[in-house]
Amino acid sequence: MIKKLFVLFVLAFISQSFASKHGIYLLTVSNIKGDIQKVGEEVKSKLESAGFNVQYFDDLSTPDVVRKDKKEQCGLKAKLIVATNNLYSKMVTSYGNKYLVAAFLRIGIYETQDGIQVQIADPETINRIIFNDLYEEGKEKEYFQVVNRTKEFKGQLIKVIHSISGGSKVEIPMPPIRSDEDLQESSRDMFMMVGKMTFFNDEDQFPQIYSRKNAEGKTGIEKLLSEINNNLKNFKPTKDDVDYRWTSSPEILKWKIISKEYSPDSSAVVLGITRTRTEGLSFHIAGSSRENSANKCPGIDHAAAYPIEVLVMQKGNQLVVHTAREMFRMDMYFWDAGMAAFMNHMSMPGILDESIRKAILGNSYELD
After folding, report:
1. Percent of the chain having pLDDT more than 70?
2. For 298-324, how does the pLDDT look when each residue is reduced to its tens digit (9 = 90+)?
3. Between 140-162 and 36-49, two packed helices, what is the crossing angle to 10 degrees?
């Protein structure tokens, strides 16, 4: 009897220890045999039938776009789905419109030598980061309320994805993996290089990059969005941006908006932006230490890292624009690439910060 109780205690301890670990990504279906386009279409269809709003479904760039030598290319494909849910957006913004930055639900679909994999950017893990200012400000009850409510939506999302045909239905946390204590206390991954793992308790991590007076409400927001669209069309990358990595065409350096979600009161909107080379290069860096002859593009298992969030929000009589500092965002989604990868690409986050701000703000951009 004592032996049985000991075994049960050990199993409970192991289970509890595992449950306290949270991956930025969660593998939901593994090793599907078939065509990646058809898999993506089925996921999209199931999501729409379940009441999710699919805003984007298209190819993701792979490391092949930054590899001039065709012998180094892998030929694997990846796709991205960005979805929203009205009830989910209402839930996250019930704590404040700044939390609209959590609204995008992202599904990455990618090929490996074993088949097609389907993952999500784990909304529970992400919200444990986005909302951790509540925890650190003594609002622990609200923090854990958000976490528990997010778990409900996460369960619904997983259930929908598990309803697709083929493959093994799983729930496997994928790196970067952090403990719940580290997430709620915004513990640092890299003491000197990045800073606290928080959006709102360190103003350097999700900085305000632009502001102006706005007395027109949503009309003023729409004017700014129109300006942002024009700025993106007219964007020309800097020499540093162009020269950073081999580029097959200037077009792959253009930023584009692929998703957009308004707060229920229409006084905030989050945009999702991305571009071809940044996707491909980040996946190249993320997988470089894991590459082998059988899999030359392992980094596409970070497919759900995109898009990059840009928050436009009314704050008092001001219209403000925020976006994450790219060193922080890379730490959040690509920390498992390793310290050497971060050290070897130290200039990349700063170049991206400048590129993103220049693309969004156009002539209103001011160099820090």
Report:
1. 94
2. 999 999 999 999 999 999 999 999 999
3. 120
In this prediction, residue 368 carries a pLDDT of 64
Structure tokens at 131: 């909302």
Query: Which stretches of the chain are DSSP H helices?
Result: 2-19, 36-49, 86-93, 123-130, 132-136, 140-162, 180-184, 218-234, 239-243, 276-287, 326-334, 339-344, 348-361
Domain locations in the chain? Answer: 23-364
C-alpha separations of 45 from 40, 41, 163, 175, 321 in Å:
9, 6, 11, 28, 33
DSSP string covering 264-281, please?
Answer: TTSSEEEEEEE-HHHHHH
Token representation of residue 209: 């990059």
Axis crossing angle, helix 276-287 with helix 326-334, rounded to the nearest 10: 50
Pairing of strands 256-262, 268-274: antiparallel
Give the Cα separation of 272 and 81 in Å (integer). 12
Q: What is the distance between the alpha carbons of residues 74 and 185, in angstroms, rounded to a whole number? A: 39
Mean pLDDT by 10 residues, the chain (368 residues): 41 44 97 98 98 98 95 96 98 98 98 97 98 97 98 98 98 97 93 88 95 95 98 96 91 97 98 98 96 94 98 97 97 94 93 98 86
Place of tokens 């039938």: 49
Q: What distances in angstroms separate CA 251 from CA 247, 270, 301, 315, one per listed residue?
A: 9, 24, 25, 35
Contact 313, 320 (CB under 8 A): yes
Q: Which amino acid is at 79?
A: K
pTM above 0.90, yes or no: yes
**Is the domain covering 23-364 a CATH 3.30.1330.10 domain?**
no
Query: From the centroid of its chain, how far is CA 44?
Result: 18
Distances from the Cα of 357 to the Cα of 14, 66, 333, angstroms: 45, 23, 20
Tell me the β-bridge partners of 23: 177
